[in-house]
Amino acid sequence: MNKIANKQVICDVLLEEAKNDKDIVVLCSDSRGSASLTEFANTHPDQFVEVGVAEQNLVSISAGLASCGKKPFAASPACFLSMRSAEQIKVDVAYSNTNVKLLGISGGISYGALGMTHHSTNDIAVMASIPNMRVYIPSDRFQTEKLIRALLKDEKPAFIRVGRNPVEDVYSEGNVPFEMDKATILQQGNDITLIACGELVIEAKRAGEKLKEKGINARVIDMYCIKPMDREAVVKAAKETKGIITIEEHTRFGGMGSMVSQIVAAQVPNTRVVNLALPDTPVITGKSKEVFKHYGLDSDGIVKSVLEMMKNGQ
Amino acid sequence: MIDLKIKAYELRKDIVTLIYNAGCGHIGGDLSVIDILVVLYYKHLNCSPETIDHPDRDRFVLSKGHAAEALYCVLADRGFFPKSDLDNYSGFKSKYIGHPNNEVNGIEVNTGSLGHGLSVAVGMAIAGKMDNKDYRVYTVLGDGELDEGSIWEGVMAASHYQLDNLTAIVDRNNLQITGWTKDVMSQDRLEDRWAAFGWYVITIPGNDVDAIDRAIEKAKNIKGKPTVIIANTIKGCGVSFMENQAGWHHRVPNDEEYAKAMEELEAKLEKLRRVS
Fold first, then answer.
1. CATH code of residue B177
2. CA separation, residue B19 to residues B16, B32, B135, B140, B149 (Å)
3. What is the pLDDT of residue B65?
4. Which of A147, A157, A162, A224 gets the highest tally of CB atoms within 10 A of its CB?
């Protein structure tokens, strides 16, 4: 088990790529330390812009840089980036179609005891509802690297959420299936489907393994591409398995699960979808693992939900 | 050499006609800002229909995006697109909408939500510095727009990064949609505010093309800091009954008002043509 934060991987990729591509610019809002981008700032000071604690400015300046051919990566805590600068993201990035990559760091509930001010439990809802904005939540360091390299090749806006803490590997060296905007199937199965994103993919993967021991073959899907969502994978799962459970570090309203439900309701309405997510209240205090367990988002909670779903019939 | 005063009054007629025909538009702010746009687009901006994608072109951001009609009329007259494109201004499926739209030739970024343009311009100016380019970046702000906190984030950053390739022009017409800015939210000692943030400040009569021209020229020679031009303008400038009236922020002239406005503008034009 390797423990490297996804944000560290982003820094490593950008550090390397910025050597050969002088148009790569990283912007921080007094957030270089928390974004693990201090090394980038020190190594490439000419390709780094500090804007101070000013997230609106962070996004608009990034848009201005992009309109002049730069490739800005704007890094700020996902909570502030997705909410405080939502306007700037909507207008200056998405509507103006500027090549700005928004790095929402310490996403979800990864700030733990810092509380709801610092949690981003509605960033998917806010970002995905903006026309021309893409939303990605990679699961581990390997996928994060593939994703960032893929995003460096396009010139469209995107919001990428990563957590604060080191996460366990879902994939392994040399075994990282990745196709841009296509979900990754971690385990095949035809009884039931688990669709997860971000740090909860590892929990879904474990749940899939535990279910197998109970004779239940779950299909486990890593839906890192929230928008555009891999509709084909969702429809296929809805047709080929008896029910879908979505698992995400986000409020149940307007998140990945809502989007899956929308697709299934329209195309395979007889298949049930259950959304496991954070509640519509301030989340309890605790480390990510503790909080996930409390809300039934860990592998045991997922297994329990699967068993309930199967018991109730589809 | 084109006579900028005459051009500004000819374009006033275009603006008033555009709004009269379309039945919508921000006529008061269009008429206060038009002289600034004319001086920029006919004298200073090295950006033309032929160079709209050139990396060395000067950049312009109309941060007070509601003055879109003034910008569209200028761009059409400068040949960025045919004037006839504006026949369907704000109509069904038109890309010429009530706030600048970068699907339109010559418009760099979308604006309309107030308080964004300055920071976008800061990004453009930083990019110019990074690439050692000589282009200049201009943005026009409304004075009501200065109520937005994000403006002051941009003001801070421009000064911090010593962006002497950036000129901001405040269309200081003292009115916003509700009434006088001094009553809505005071912009008292406006020059001091910008100066305190580290900007070079020039105050001018903002509907005087010669004064605008001189100020923009002067800003080019200020080194180590950005320049703001506080252009003291008259909202509705050029049409007597629209001047200094908050009610004309986005009112549309009726037939009688339209005829009277055109008559006044034509009379002014005749006078200007006689002098030149």
1. 3.40.50.970
2. 5, 15, 33, 21, 31
3. 97
4. A162
3-class DSSP state for residue A245?
strand
The closest alpha carbon to A161, from A297, A3, A7, A26, belongs to A7
d(CA A60, CA A54): 10
Please state, rounded to an integer, the average pLDDT across all residues of chain A. 96
Domains in chain A, CATH or no CATH each: 6-161 (3.40.50.970), 184-311 (3.40.50.920)
The whole-number pLDDT of residue B89 equals 96
Q: How far does A97 lie from chain B, in Å, by closest CA? A: 9
Nearest CA in chain A to B63: A92
Of A46, A47, A96, the CB nearest to B102: A96
Residue B105, domain extent:
4-275
Residue A29 sits at the chain B interface (C-beta within 8 Å): no
Contact between chains at A61 and B126 (C-beta distance less than 8 A): yes
Chain B positions in Cβ-Cβ contact with residue A96 (cut-off 8 Å): 102, 109-110
User: What burial letters (b/e) apply to B4-28, b meaning 16+ CB within 10 Å?
Assistant: bbbbbbbbbbbbbbbbbbbebbbbb
Q: Is B110 within 8 Å of A54 when comparing Cβ atoms?
A: no
Of B119, B112, B114, B127, residue with least CA distance to B58: B127
B124, B156, B160 member nearest A68 (Cβ):
B124
Handedness of CA A170, A175, A177, A180 (dihedral sign): positive
pLDDT digits (tens, 9 = 90+) for A102-118: 999 999 999 999 999 99
| Euclidean distance between CA atoms A244 and B61, whole angstroms | 48
Is A93 in the B-facing interface, judged by CB distances under 8 Å? no
Contact A221, A233 (CB under 8 A): yes
Q: What is the mean pLDDT of each run of 10 residues along chain A (314 residues)?
A: 83 96 97 93 97 98 98 98 98 98 97 94 98 98 98 98 94 96 98 98 98 98 98 98 98 97 98 97 95 98 96 70
Go through A222-253 and write b for each residue having 16 or more CB atoms within 10 A of its CB, e for each that does not: bbbbbbebbbebbbbbbeebbbbbbbbbbbbe
**Among A25, A63, A87, beta carbon nearest to B109:** A63
Distance from CA of A17 to the nearest CA of B (A): 17
Q: CA of B98: how far to CAs of A97, A262, B18, B86, in Å?
A: 19, 34, 12, 12
Q: In what order do the strands lie in the sheet with B137-142?
A: B59-62, B137-142, B166-172, B227-232, B200-205
Question: Which of A49, A52, A88 faces B126 most closely, judged by CB atoms?
Answer: A49
Interface contact B119, partner A, CB < 8 A: yes
Query: One-letter amino acid identity for A196?
Result: A
